Amino acid sequence: MGKINNPDYVKEQYHKSDNLSTRISIHDKYSTNKMGLSNWYFSMYQINNGMKILELGCGTGSMWLEHKEVMAICKQIVLSDLSAGMLETAQKNIGEMNNVAYEVIDIQNIPYDDNYFDIVIANYMLYHVPDLHKAISEVSRVLRPGGYFYAGTVGENGIMETIVKILDMDFVFENTFSLENGMKKIEPYFQTVEIKKYIDSLEVTNVDDLLDYLYSGITFKNACRLSREEVREKLISHMKNGVLVLPKEPGMFAAVK
Predict the structure, then answer these.
(1) What is the pLDDT of residue 221?
(2) Which pTM does this prediction carry?
C-alpha cells in the first residue's frame, strides 16, 4: 500500500518548488470550475481587519497572489513551510510586505505562544505529517478561543485513485487525512467542525501535461512499474473525443476553537 506521508518522499518532492509548480499548473489549465480553488478558499475564509494569520505548508505562496488586498488588512501574516526552498520561492512571488513574515515551521512544533493567531490555514499538507494528533493539537494551542482552522484536502476517489485504476496498478494511495477520515481527527480539538466541498474536475486534452503532473509526484514515480510511454498509451486509450476526464474531490474542514 502506498502512503503519501512517507517522510523521505515528502522531503524529496518538496525541497524545491519545481514539482509543486508543475502540480499546480495542470489544475490552472484543465479545471472545469473556473472560479479557481484559491478564490473559493478566500470565499470561505473569515478574514477581518487586524487579524493574525498563520499558514502552514504555504508552498510557493500562490494562494495569496490574487488576494494582496486581503493581506493588507491583516495585522500579521506568517507564511511557513518545512522547506526553505519553498519559502524562498514564496518570498519572491509575494515580495516584501511589512506585515508578512516567512518562516520555516514544523506543524508538530509551532514556535508561537498559546492563543496567538486568529486563523490557521493548512492546505493539502496534513496527510504528509507523521504525527497528526500532535500537529492538530499544536494548531489548536496557538489559536485564540473562537479562532478558525481551515484545512484543505481531498476525497478518496479523485485524480490519483482514477489514474491507478486506468493503469491497473497494484497500488493504493493511503490518504491519512482525507475528507472522509479527517473529521474524527479534528473534532477532539475544536468546538465545531464543518466539511465544505468544491465541485470540480479535470478535462485534459494534452496527455503530456498529465504525464508531467504524474511524474512530479515522487510516490507515483516510485510505485509505477510501467514505462512513461506505456503510461501515455493507456491514458490516451481512455480519452473520449480527445478529452480525458478525471474527477477531483477538493474541499476543506472549517473548524472553530
Answers:
(1) 78
(2) 0.87
